[in-house]
Amino acid sequence: MTAPESAGPAESAGPAETVVDQPGPGTEPGRWPTALVTGASRGIGRAVALALAADGYDVAVTARTVREGDGPYGLPGSLESTTAEATALGARVVPVPLDLLDADRLVPAVEEALDAFGRLDVLVNNAIYVGPGGDAGFLDVSRAEIERRIYANLTAQLLLTQRAVRAMVDAGGGTVVGITSGAGTADPRGGPGTTGGWAVSYGCSKGGFHRMAGAIAAELGERGIRCFNVEPGPVATERVLARPDLRWVAEHGRTPESVGAVVAWLLRQPDGAVPNGDTVSVAAVAPALEAAARGDQR
């Protein structure tokens, strides 16, 4: 399976002008914003968690890999390492072990964050299913593989989000960000295992996931809920770089840190600056943020 970070860009809406100097959150005395970031042991999730920690958030982070060296395929990254890095940035960090396929852990994972922080201002849905069978063609993939992928990438996301949003509504509002994929909105250029290709079940799962933002915004926007997608485009994560067939992403894609910066920027925007339910393209926003970081903003 071509990794989700390498999917082609969606037809994403973004703000007409990228304003990089909005004030950060957490300015109210004694009230630091809180976020739950899923899939945060490495890659985009880790980068988002660290960007929010640097922006003044306390963060709860989930992942399957708890300790360094226990990750799939020998990849670096763990809950322990992300927790240590975010703590060094001044954040209060709550590590929450979570496998999206473990139905009995989904709601409790959100509740662990709520118990620790007392509220939840932001949920970033980044975790996806990573397992065997991703390179199988449509005629060869097993029923079990289809069910695992759809459950983890869609059903589990709905259940996590439902619990988080219920708490947000009770508290007066909150924001949900989904790390989406072009696989959910565009057709592949080939089958799984080819450049620009992905499994049918993956595209279907991400298509359903992509629709969450607009639907939740339409239903619950008047109750204080903001919900957005962030389309990362090709991203050179550890998992992508471990695959020889995806090395082209290292030359043409963005870093996980650029996605983290865009998510942090999005969360700093005042209500209405980005239409509720919209999709923000990293390719559209990151260049201005990177220019500002270099000090050459025009």
Automatic annotation (TrEMBL):
Database matches in CDD domains: SDR_c
SUPFAM superfamilies from the UniProt entry: NAD(P)-binding Rossmann-fold domains (SSF51735)
Source organism superkingdom: Bacteria
Keywords on record: Oxidoreductase
Gene3D superfamilies according to UniProt: NAD(P)-binding Rossmann-like Domain (3.40.50.720)
Alphabetized GO MF terms: oxidoreductase activity, acting on the CH-OH group of donors, NAD or NADP as acceptor
Sequence segments annotated as region (Disordered): 1-33
Family from the record: Belongs to the short-chain dehydrogenases/reductases (SDR) family.
Protein known as: Short-chain dehydrogenase
Biological source species: Pseudofrankia asymbiotica
